[in-house]
Design a protein that fits this description.
This protein has about 290 residues and is of the alpha+beta class. The chain is about 15% helix and about 40% strand. The protein has one domain. The strands form three sheets. Strands 1, 2, 3, 4, 5, 6, 7, 9, 11, 12 and 15 form an eleven-stranded antiparallel beta sheet that branches. Strands 8-10 form a two-stranded antiparallel ribbon. Keywords: Signal.
Length: about 290
């Protein structure tokens, strides 16, 4: 990181940006349609050999997101963890000299001037050190200048088990926990979470990477026989986002596809007494306008 900091201080200049009401006015916009279907089951038997709890969870999302191109086309804002950039021999030699200088500012300045005088290996130093590839990526985020999301979130759970309500004897139960939430929402914090969606299009590899907000509260009603009192549950418990990386497009410039999601967080019952891992399928289609 020290090398990158040195490069940044020597090669970057700062500019003043005049922010309009819409900071991305004039930028390309588009719509991302997403359909997410998740399910999971689990049962936990308690140590007393009598009580147990089970959950059959189904969660779904059908949402259209309004997105805006946020720039920074040299680096992806959504990406799987990758190895660091591969340096040219000239850059690798420069890196070694900078590290040898330590905190000697005169040595650092002399090293950089010598490198520049030698032509710098024909390289853009900062781009090489950060792995930037200008023009390769298109980065999109939720368009907060308008309504960034329209659609529906759905929870459909069946909860069963046996519990002991002292001083009464053991009692079997089975009840439903259902609910839905329509978007857009008036809740500012909820809207902010939904608008946290991010997407990167790799125009060279023709792939899409997506970070989809999923830890979203959905109001629920409990069916007959319920002994819990929750009024809302998260669409997905655990991570705030479901992410996919480097998924192939349907064709050149056709940003549509689907993916199986093996680990999409979880759903729980009775304050986490039983937790079901969720898995399912995500489908998407993006079109510019």
């Amino acid at each position: 990181m020290r090398v990158a900091i040195v490069f940044a201080s020597l090669f970057l200049t700062t500019t003043t940006v005049a922010w309009a009401e819409d900071p991305f006015e004039g930028s390309q916009r588009g719509m991302l349609s997403v359909t997410l279907e998740l399910s999971g089951t689990n049962r936990v038997d308690l140590p007393n050999g009598v009580e147990w709890a089970a959950i059959e969870a189904r969660r779904s999302m059908a949402v259209e997101f309004e997105l805006v191109d946020v720039g920074n086309d040299g680096l992806p804002i959504v990406a799987a963890k990758r190895d660091g950039p591969v340096l040219s021999p000239e850059m690798d030699g420069l890196k070694g000299k900078i590290e040898a200088c330590g905190d000697d500012q005169a040595c650092l300045a002399r090293t950089m001037m010598e490198f520049a005088a030698a032509g710098g290996g024909g390289a853009n130093v900062f781009q090489q050190m950060t792995g930037q590839q200008p023009g390769r990526y298109r980065n999109f985020a939720g368009d907060r200048s308008g309504t960034c999301a329209k659609g529906t979130l759905v929870v459909k759970d069946v909860l069963t088990g046996v519990y002991i309500p002292p001083p009464e004897p053991a009692r079997a139960y089975r009840f439903t926990r259902n609910g839905s939430r329509e978007l857009p929402a008036t809740d500012a914090a909820f809207t902010d979470a939904v608008c946290g969606i991010e997407m990167t299009l790799d125009t060279v590899a023709n792939t899409i990477s997506l970070r989809l907000p999923a830890s979203l509260a959905v109001g629920v009603s409990l069916g007959a026989g319920a002994f819990t009192d929750e009024r809302a549950v998260k669409l997905v418990e655990g991570d705030r986002f479901i992410a996919i990386h480097d998924q192939p497009a349907g064709g050149p410039g056709a940003w549509g596809g689907s993916a199986e999601i093996a680990n999409a967080g979880s759903a729980s019952h009775n304050s986490g007494q039983v937790v079901a891992p969720l898995k399912g399928r995500l489908e998407w289609h993006f079109s510019e306008r």
